[in-house]
Write a structure and sequence with these properties.
By secondary structure, this protein is mostly helical. The chain contains 8 helices and no strands. The chain has one domain: Hypothetical protein af1432. α3 runs antiparallel to α4 and α3 crosses α7.
């Protein structure tokens, strides 16, 4: 059955939807949601060949970041966050960390979500002053419980992951982790409806 031949709701305004309509939509949503890991993997591939002036392309940077976290013994969820931390570069040129955090939020802990969401501010410590910005902007969060976690992520995994000769595990290595993390939401408005 294709998307055009699958059952569809009959309303033209949500206020007119019936229980049957919403069950039809829920069934369709469930099967579509199962494809999220595939769409995430496809979107990561958009980073391939995009150097943006860096010594390696953004896909390689993402893979190196995940490799460093994995080799340091971080759990699968953390490694997936490391892999996806810059996935927003293609659509969120001015807020890439927010885009990545939004994708991850339903599936990861609050600590990992916060780390990804704020990593762009924290990495600014290394270069904001060269752009006329405040390199210590991260200090606005110094009392936050995930402050040190985010410093660790940026300093140990994100910032050193621009090495053309650095170990870079292939995307296929991380695919089972991505599928496991995105298998079922843990924090979502719809988590009990799927």
């Amino acid at each position: 059955m294709t998307e055009t031949t699958a059952p569809q709701a009959s309303f033209t305004h949500m206020k007119d939807g019936t229980a049957e309509d919403w069950q039809t939509i829920a069934r369709s949503f469930g099967s579509f949601a199962k494809g999220l890991p595939d769409r995430i993997m496809d979107h990561l591939m958009l980073l391939e060949g995009d150097f943006g002036g860096f010594p390696i392309d953004r896909l390689t940077h993402s893979l190196q970041t995940a490799t460093l976290a994995y080799r340091d013994g971080k759990d699968d969820e953390y490694v997936v966050c490391a892999l996806l931390h810059d996935i927003g570069d293609t659509l969120g040129s001015y807020n890439h960390a927010d885009v990545a955090a939004v994708l991850l939020e339903p599936f990861v802990s609050e600590a990992n979500h916060w780390m990804v969401k704020h990593h762009a501010i924290f990495q600014g410590y290394y270069f904001f002053h060269y752009l006329g910005m405040d390199r210590n902007l991260r200090d606005n969060y110094k009392d936050h419980p995930h402050f040190m976690r985010t410093i660790e992520f940026v300093s140990k995994y994100d910032s050193p992951a621009f090495d053309p000769d650095g170990e870079t595990l292939p995307l296929s290595y991380f695919e089972p982790m991505v599928r496991q993390v995105f298998a079922k939401p843990v924090r979502s408005l719809y988590k009990d409806a799927v």
